[in-house]
TrEMBL record:
Name of this chain's protein: Flagellar hook-associated protein 3
GO cellular component term of the entry, any: bacterial-type flagellum
Domain Flagellin N-terminal: 10-140
Pfam family, one: Flagellin_N
Length: 301
């Protein structure tokens, strides 16, 4: 009976070996097909923990990158809009200076007022610049129009936003403002640039060129300076976005390298391992075929 038991034992051992080789070969085939060393946590528990940490960090940085891309777009739009606004107010100041020329009649002054009304309309359009339907100069208020002028050119302009600048998260603990809240100063005590323009329009329309070229000119000059400062701040915001975007992009590249190192497959090593296992499997398969399987007659003999 001993030879029969030995054959059974050998057959079972070879069968177990074949199953093990098949399982290992299958796992290596998957690795070679997708290029990933870790298919399941059980493959490398410690490596899995490190990989999950790196992937979480990568996802966070990619979200920051998306935030910065959106924020920089809005910041650039705000910068270009405020630059355009400064140019319009400079034109308005030049028009107002003409009221100080000798021999300005009431008719000429009225014509200058009309020019200022046209410039104010253009300025109002710039002040109501939107991105994706949102007024960019309304702070965090969910409105499509930051400034309204119900009475038309030359009348009061009302600010519909709030004083809280919209921001985006650009890095851990870092929030950058995408735009400025009420950079035209309509909600300030002086009424900002629109109030200065409206007073000049009113005085020119009534023929009061003296007030237009003194107090009105001084008010508009101050408003222009304030607006220029706002445009400068908007330009600085664009630079901040550009600098932080470069840092986050570099961080993403570094973490992606770390993920690749943890997850990436050493093809040469795994290919050699696969070939070795395949050879062993073929040898075991041949040996299993040579083992004489015991029959019922062998037990009864």
């Amino acid at each position: 009976m001993q030879p029969i038991m030995t054959s059974i034992s050998l057959a079972n051992t070879l069968s177990s070996s074949l199953d093990s080789y098949q399982s290992q070969l299958s796992q290596l085939q998957v690795q070679l097909s997708n290029g990933q060393a870790i298919q399941a946590p059980s493959d490398n528990p410690a490596g899995t923990v490190n990989l999950l940490g790196a992937q979480t960090q990568l996802a966070a940085y990619q979200q920051y990158q998306s935030n910065l891309s959106y924020g920089q777009t809005v910041a650039q739009l705000a910068n270009s809009s405020l630059t355009q606004a400064v140019s319009i107010v400079q034109q308005a100041r030049s028009v107002l200076l003409q009221a100080g020329a000798p021999g300005v009649t009431s008719q000429v002054a009225s014509g200058l007022a009309t020019q200022l009304q046209g410039l104010e309309t253009s300025l109002l359009g710039v002040a109501n610049t939107t991105y994706e339907g949102q007024a960019i100069f309304a702070g965090t208020a969910d409105v499509a129009t930051a400034y309204v002028q119900p009475g038309g050119p030359g009348t009061a302009v009302t600010y519909q936003g709030n004083q809280q600048s919209a921001t985006v998260a650009g890095a851990p603990g870092v929030a950058l403002a995408t735009s400025l809240a009420d950079p035209f100063g309509a909600s300030s005590p002086t009424g900002g640039v629109f109030a200065a323009l409206n007073q000049a329009i009113s005085d020119l329309s009534s023929g009061n060129t003296s007030a237009a070229t003194t107090t009105d000119l001084a008010s508009l000059t101050t408003a222009l300076q304030n607006l220029t400062n706002q445009a400068g701040a908007a330009g600085e915001a664009v630079t901040q976005f550009q600098n932080l975007t470069q840092q986050v992009t570099a961080a993403i590249t570094q973490v992606q390298s770390q993920v690749s190192s943890l997850q990436g497959l050493n093809y040469a090593q795994v290919t050699t391992q696969y070939q070795t296992l395949l050879n062993n499997y073929q040898v075991a398969l041949y040996a299993a075929a040579q083992v004489k399987q015991p029959t019922l007659a062998s037990y009864l003999a």
